[in-house]
Amino acid sequence: MIYLRIKENTPQAKAVIDLLKTMDFVEFVSTKTAKELTLEAITEAKSGKITKSKNVKEMFKKLNS
Fold first, then answer.
1. Which domain holds residue 47?
2. Does the pTM of the predicted model rise above 0.70?
């Protein structure tokens, strides 16, 4: 498995991304930065979209169900 980080600010980079999207063996995992993902998680937590557990065992039980 190979991970690439492509800066999308040039026409050449956008062309490469468009080409990769046409290939069935290429999977785009996330286009968000770590900062964006963190801010999104904070917003969800503040809005109440969290799962509370008493301990780790209970947390994994909830996650696996």
1. 11-64
2. no
